[in-house]
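Forwarding these from the shared drive since the link keeps breaking.
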Amino acid sequence: MEGSAKGISGSKTPATGTAVSSKGKTFISDEVVSIIARIAAEQVEGVHQIGDSSLRGMFSRLGRSPGIDSDVGLKEAAVDVDIVVDYGYPIKILADELRRSIIESVEYMTGRKVVEVNIHVIDVYIPKTEKVSKRELE
């Protein structure tokens, strides 16, 4: 996955966005934002899969969310997501809806402003159709 979600402004500890208030600090890990983004993405019609299924097992063993990369700062967050779209869905419309869904969910749950959501369409899912013989049509 490309590193375009990196470089969010605001100092932070490694892999953690820290919000400071007069009563303490709130730490939000990059992985938490990735999980929120994954759940938001799974709810968008036309998103067949997030990430590459061949890598899913390896990432789950590492405790990471495959296909989603997030970077969380003190006040901002950014997300990169790799998706497979269902054939027949207009990619621009689907990407706009996906971006809106991720931004709303992450901002609501974390209080961080989402400065960008980069969507990488890595494949198109085409369902296999059953071949019907001429006899079955008669």
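-- next protein --
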Amino acid sequence: MSASKLAVYWHPDVLKHDPGRGCYEYEASPLMEVAEPHPETPERIVNIRSILQRGDISGQVDWRDGRHAERHEIERFHTAAYVDEVIEAEKHPPTRIDGSGTVVDKGSVDAVFAAAGTTVAAVEGVLATENLAAYALVRPPGHHAARHMADGNCIFNNLAIAVETALQNGCRRVAVIDWDVHHGNGTQSGFYDRADVLTISMHMPLGAWGPNHPETGEIDETGEGDGQGCNFNIPLPYGSGDQAYAKAMDELVAPVVRDFDPDLIVIACGQDANQFDPNGRNLLGMSGFRHLGTVARELASELCAGRLLLCQEGGYAITYTGFCMYAVAEGILGVAEPMEDPLAYDASIEKPETPFAAIDEVGRQWRALAG
């Protein structure tokens, strides 16, 4: 069953966060005459908003107002000391709060409170309405942020705050599927010892990248304590493409979610696996993203009365990110005649043998770890 409408939650304050210019996401290089905009720009989600408003599916998009979070809502996931750190950082702008590429500047606190609150409003809408698919169109992204620290352009983990909200409001189990091209390490670490949250991440094999990102994203990170067996990582080779993502979603992700039998499915909905993304290398087109949306919708309809929340994460190609999110929405809505991809290369040139073998190996290792 397809969703008849996609509820999109939006608050304009998410545009106030401006990470500035530099050497990609880092400090400007003295060797360069022109500093480039930080990749996590407001324009990337403005274009998503635009295509959802102007495309053929616009009549099936139900725009809803977001809001700022209350502090106690953010502290459902984050520590009070870390929330204080974020608020204090804005008093000394710009602050690289993770010591790397994550910037807090004037306007950032308004933006992160709006992003978190809008995502909470979206999950509250899903829980209050049978068969509602909702999308929190927010920034900055969140899935790298741990309970006590920032990482990877992420300040507050909007998705994780929404998961905690759902669990406090009647959900017994929540499944998180993260198809952002980077490992969802903050979400993984936040629920690593929990049996009520299933976390699955499909990502490039980048490994750990510093003190704020010690998780490797490898197959052997499966959870601990009560959460043992509730975390699944799917490291995918660079250049995997549409066919490999479809295989991973159909053969690895879907069966695990069915076994978990959640009351709610939450998607870390990044588009940085796309063919033109400056921060990703996995080469999906609109067709690949459409299939991800279709499977997410089918799982939600089958397992949890259609309750599905998508939370915007990465996606840094300012134009193609919008087209790829549009394709996800088409999959959610079950659109019979989807938009033609205006940019992607012909997927028939893909050579999926290597990623297919990697996906089969992930499945083999999962079975071995399960005993």
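The domain at 6-336+347-370 is CATH 3.40.800.20 (Arginase; Chain A). The chain is about 35% helix and 15% strand.

- D.
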